[in-house]
Amino acid sequence: MPSATDPAVDVHTHLVPKGWPDLAAACGGTGWPWLRVDSERAAMIMVGETEWRPIGVQAWDPGTRRADMDADGIDLQVVSPTPVFFAYDRPADQAIKVARIFNDLMLTTLADDPRLVPFCQVPLQDPDAACAELDRCLAAGHVGVEIGNHVGDRDLDDDGIVAFLNHCAEVGAPVLVHPWDMPGGPRLDRWMARWLTGMPAETHLSLLAMILGGAFDRLPESLRICFAHGGGSFAFWLGRSDNAWRRRGDVVRGRSLHAPSHYLGRFFVDTVVFEPSALRLLVDTVGEDHLVVGSDYPYPLGERPAGEVVRKADFLSDGQRHKLLSTNAVRFLGRSQHE
User: Fold this and answer.
1) How confident is the model at residue 192 (pLDDT cuts 50, 70, 90)?
2) Average pLDDT over residues 56-66
């Protein structure tokens, strides 16, 4: 077995800057997130007067982040925004302003550290503005973009979102799709059920939308897109989706030209599945060439040490493990192995 610190690339982590401008004053509107700083090492993300999520120094301090990377054997870490700041439900002009604020703070916080790879956010509700902000960010130093898995009732097969993804392919920007804005209610507001069941379901639904809505058929194969959290429940139920596509094609096929399994190879998923048996399903279904390490650092539902499930999986060959830990992520990022 390889050592616990074999080098790896982690494509799924998040950042929260320590402080940002008053968003109501800077962007307009009300009810924006704000940060209640409780100590030098702890803070609370607030939405209005509601406590949304506690965070620690790991969320904003690159030194702490690098120390944790060293402890976990992570050479390179993709750093993305935290989805609560996406603002897809707001007027586009407000979402443009907040994206610029957090994208610029991302670069300032990471301070050109070559081990920390910044991904930006965009106002996805306005595809033209999203393309413009992506271009601005790529010129400024961002490497790719994180998007939420839907904009209200518009999923990833929406014509405007497909146009944005086509632009990502044209400019060579990798895309990380992260579930967000999960439905709530009495049955889902207990036990973090929105995160335990809603996140996998959201990711599964958006992968199906890209397939059955014909998005992959309208996008070039050069698009590099990765779905967080192991692709949700997609791999487990792929056989059910194929069966439905064949037996109830009158309803299920939508705009797709092929059964769902045909589109394996068009996307990556990360390895935040925690158990080797779940990872084996992903290797068998999604394929060893389309799996990348992700941790969801620094949040408590993430994996620590990052990459542990890949390192513990005794069914992987050394070559497969190296793909999952490193070379697949290098390909997703559009880099050479020696960068």
Assistant:
1) confident
2) 94
pLDDT, tens digit, for every residue of 94-139? 999 999 999 999 999 998 899 999 999 999 999 999 999 999 999 9
Confidence at residue 5, expressed as pLDDT on a 0 to 100 scale: 46
Q: Are 252 and 211 in contact (CB under 8 A)?
A: no
Q: What is the CB neighbour count within 10 angstroms for residue 139? A: 8
Helix 127-140 to helix 92-110 angle (10° resolution) is: 20
Q: Please give the distance of CA 209 from its chain centroid, rounded to a whole number.
A: 17
Helix (H/G/I), strand (E/B), else coil: 115: coil
- Amino acid 200 reads P
Q: Given 3.40.190.10, 3.20.20.70, 3.20.20.140, 3.90.76.10, which CATH number is that of 8-15+57-333?
A: 3.20.20.140
Q: Quick one: average pLDDT of 13-29?
A: 93
Distance of CA 333 to the CA centre of its chain: 13
Q: Which of 97, 84, 83, 92 is nearest to 21 (CA)?
A: 97
Helices (H), 144-183: 159-171
Q: Where along the chain do its domains lie?
A: 8-15+57-333
Backbone angles phi, psi at 193, to 5 degrees: -65, -25
pLDDT at 336: 61
| DSSP reduced 3-state for 104 | helix
Rounded Cα distance, 33 and 53, in Å: 11
Instruction: State residue 36 phi and psi, 5-degree precision.
Output: -95, 110
* Distance separating alpha carbons of residues 3 and 68, to the nearest angstrom: 17
